Amino acid sequence: MSKLTVGSLFSGIGGMDLGFERAGMEIVFQVEIDPFCQRVLAKHWPNVERFGDVRECGNHNLAAVDVICGGFPCVDISNAGRREGIEGERSGLWSEFARIIRELRPRYVVVENVAALLGRGMGRVLGDLAACGYDAEWEVLPAAAFGAPHIRDRVFLVAYAKQERQHPGSLSPRVFLEGPTCAESGWWGKRYTNSSDGALWRIPEGDFLAVDDGFPTELDKACIAAMGNAVVPAVAQWVGERIVECHLASTQEQD
After folding, report:
1. Which domains are assigned to the chain?
2. What's the pLDDT score for residue 192?
3. How far apart are CA 68 and CA 16, in angstroms?
4. Catalytic site includes residue 37
5. Element (H, E) at 193
6. Per-residue pLDDT at 167 exceeds 70
7. Catalytic residue among 37, 74, 182, 246, which?
8. Could you tell me how many helices (H) and strands (E) the chain has, helices first?
9. What phi-psi label fits residue 143: left (phi over 0), alpha (psi between -120 and 50 degrees) or beta?
10. Cα separation of 12 and 19, whole Å?
């Protein structure tokens, strides 16, 4: 089976892209408007075609791909944000995501966002996907279940054209949740407690950003913002592997 091709929207510094590459997919294009993130993408994916403004992209300049993925802005959805919901100025860019899906008609769509999307826009996302002819599965996946030193709950939604229908429950994360969590890992640094629910996690020891380390302050700010918005590659890899497995099974059934 040839590699599934991927078009990345709201690419950030490429966390989703890296995870999907590790799952055996090929990145064809990236769309990202932030200048710092663009430089990071250019360094790690020098041969991938890149675009800036998602509002200026569509079937007139984007290649046809098997998978379109992206984490559209969470500013208006997040509990730490404006809480205006998916109709807000920034999170409202979901409409551009949906438009590109309609125009390119990929086999699969992967949407990532904060868990608050479930109460501030999931109905709109599912409705738009259904109108495009896609079914969907979704799950809240914590980065901590994949070995990260923080909880970081994120919704991952996988949609697929109705003729590509997958097996129910294919995104269940139980195999990871039953394994060792970051709080049980031996190589992390000091342990911290989340006072809200008593959950434990660890952060690695070492240097921190935003200190007098010789790098410009503005660079530190750009790094912090980019990493804060990034998808954890290990989570994206797991999701990507599930898509590859389901696609292979579907292809074999058709044969």
Report:
1. 5-179+229-254 (3.40.50.150)
2. 30
3. 11
4. no
5. strand 191-193
6. no
7. 74
8. 7, 9
9. alpha
10. 13
